[in-house]
Amino acid sequence: MESFIIPEGYTPQLSLYDTQIGIKTVKDFFQQTLIQRLNLLRVSAPLIVTPESGLNDNLNGFERPVSFGIREQEDSPAEIVHSLAKWKRYALYKYGFSYGEGLYTDMNAIRRDEDTDNIHSLYVDQWDWEKILSKEERTEQKLREIVATVYKVFKKTEKYMAIQYDYIEEILPKEIFFITSQELEDKYPDCTPKEREYKIAKEHGAVFIMQIGDVLASGEKHDGRAPDYDDWSLNGDIIVYYPVLDIALELSSMGIRVDEAALLSQLQKAGCPERANLPFQKAILEGKLPYTVGGGIGQSRICMFFLRKAHIGEVQASIWPRETLDYAEAHGIPLL
């Protein structure tokens, strides 16, 4: 069970029942604080989309969506979303949001090709949020401002949870550290991207790694990103050091979204220029959709972090390999 980390001396501090109370406590406080700081309105969102809409998140480009045929529509195909990264921008336009306003929603997805471990599951639950910007605000300075605002929500939530539960101590640093993926490669040229994330997160406690998706000087990418939502020069991941597992833990991915020029450039780099003809992508190129910033924040990830759990299966119900279930039970870690 190399993929299952059992922290030395780890014992769950909460029963299954009390864990459910803890999950609700985290989620209620975090989302209320987030929507106040970012001026967001909760909206309903789809679980399924059609392939031809171009709305599904292609992630790294090789993950297979869960798909099925719709009987009443002559078995035409539909897909369960990987995320709502593209849909949110379209929804801001369709629902009539104005500059400075934003939306958020509960996003649920199934990622059938995910390799499961302590922090990865087949089931994904996150808050997807999106907010309208002006074209002039598509800058690194604006991105940093918004990242700092989101990070303050993490800090405030940790402080709140430390008051509610005696066993929880505040470990997040006062400020989040910013670094580009190229600067990170230059700093640790002999490490893999994940090893770099671990080193920088452990050094600073919390870090925002910027500019993810394009090829680095080494000829490799730090990580994959779909070419048609984030602007690869104006995006990044919020990663924290998690001492329970001694790992770098990604809590959020976010960024300023592509404009017309960035979309065409990134589609070309990704080798899929034909996607420019899909409805969502055409709407961007024709200037119909607003300029936006947005991101996803893992609900189970933050519950795991703030409740100091060792496995994501302690805070979400999913499907695990039989050996994972047996291994967890043998070490006193109950998975939901």
TrEMBL record:
It is found in: Cytoplasm. One of its GO terms (molecular function) is catalytic activity, acting on a protein. Its main location: cytoplasm. Pathway: Amino-acid biosynthesis; L-asparagine biosynthesis; L-asparagine from L-aspartate (ammonia route): step 1/1. One of its GO terms (cellular component) is cytosol. GO terms for biological process: L-asparagine biosynthetic process. Residues 26-321 form the Aminoacyl-transfer RNA synthetases class-II family profile domain. The keyword tRNA processing does not apply. The keyword ATP-binding applies. Keywords: Amino-acid biosynthesis, Asparagine biosynthesis, ATP-binding, Cytoplasm, Ligase, Nucleotide-binding. It catalyses: L-aspartate + NH4(+) + ATP = L-asparagine + AMP + diphosphate + H(+). Its EC number is 6.3.1.1. Pfam families: AsnA. Belongs to the class-II aminoacyl-tRNA synthetase family. AsnA subfamily. PANTHER family: ASPARTATE--AMMONIA LIGASE (PTHR30073:SF5). This is Aspartate--ammonia ligase. It comes from Lactonifactor longoviformis DSM 17459.
